[in-house]
Amino acid sequence: MGLLFFGIGVWFNSQVAAELLSPDGVVASTKLSAVVVGIRILLLAFGLFVFISKGLARLLKIRGRELFISFLIFLAGLLVLEIVTALVVCNSSSAKLKRRVLGFGQCNLASSATPHHYLNARGTPNWTSDNGRNTHNAQGFRGPDIERPKPDGVYRVVTIGGSTTYSSAVASWTDDFARQLQREFTQKGHDNVEVVNAGYPGWNSWESLINLEFNILDIEPDAIIIYHGTNDVHARLVPASAYKSDNSGRRKAWSEPEYPSLYRSKLVRLLTGINPLGGLGAYLAAPTAHVGLKDSGYVESLGGTAMEILQDNKPIYFERNLRNMVAIARAHDMDVLLSTWAYNTQFDDYAATEHYQYGYDEQNDMILGLGEELGVPTFDFEPLMPDDKELWEDGRHLKKDGIGIKAKLFAEYISEKTTFLR
Q1: How far is CA 40 from CA 25, 30, 133, 384, in A?
Q2: CA distances from 161 to 156, 203, 315 (A)
Q3: With a cut of 50, which residues of the chain have pLDDT below it?
Q4: DSSP assignment, residue 134?
Q5: According to the model, what pLDDT value does residue 312 have?
């Protein structure tokens, strides 16, 4: 083992470190150079120590002591590997490697999500992705900064929803639904229209209601487009006793998830590829949540089948949240557009299950009925969106070209069927 560590120390030179830690293949900074030297000295010294210690144990010929020393050496070896793993990962330029091993906030890992005292999680303000293609503004919304106060003559439209509004399947903010919709309006001669993306992955109508009240009103919108679907089905897929108006069956306050102690080791996470801290959902999901359940049979933790639970847990709170968003918008002289939510059943994910399709269709029917009752323009988008798999990333999210079609359909409806831009 001593020779192994000594050999790794010899191998771990500046050239190897550059490949692991530097985006341009060069170790240039003083801080990075010091890390490389420190790791190398640690590996060489430990390897030499192990080699000498084992020789000393053999010389003493005391089996019990030799076994004890070997055990200590083994533990020390694991400790050194853990330290080396932490140093390498924390100083690596590879975002993929960091996300494989680290959790939110560890080693100053830049994340698109941040905790929030009302929303649980929101987009990190002034965040930019590693490749520079995605960005959040000062409000934590996807896209560039929003001018405040709103310039005279600007008609500001804000899109509200979850990941399908945020447009998670496209890497660049310039290709999201808000930007493509704005380009459609420009092509129709509405140069004064500005579209803001105020959606965030995982948000359901509870978060959007709070976001509207505490964040969106501050940027002075003239109109809002509300587009929700799958996340509000998730909120219903909880035991009947946990289905409550505050969404506590689906959500918990941001907190580190419980997981086996073994996975507190960064070395174990690196070797196994299992990172219980890697997904945002683990920090926010209540113990009674069953997000993305594909099993159609009886689920003991639900107290029934998924279909039975959705049939019992009607979308009453989703409807209430939509009513409240419409009421807030009207109180602030804003136009409102409701829309049905599109999905694709050709992928092997939960959107293809019978119970999720039931949930989507039931909610879409509720949205159409609510729009008629309240006299709110409601775009029945779901049957118009093509189901060509090339346009979809999965059963819920559209790719760039699919978002383009969505934007065109919305722009046509708003221009021809509403009074928004008149």
Answers
A1: 18, 15, 35, 61
A2: 17, 7, 16
A3: 22-31, 34, 64
A4: -
A5: 98
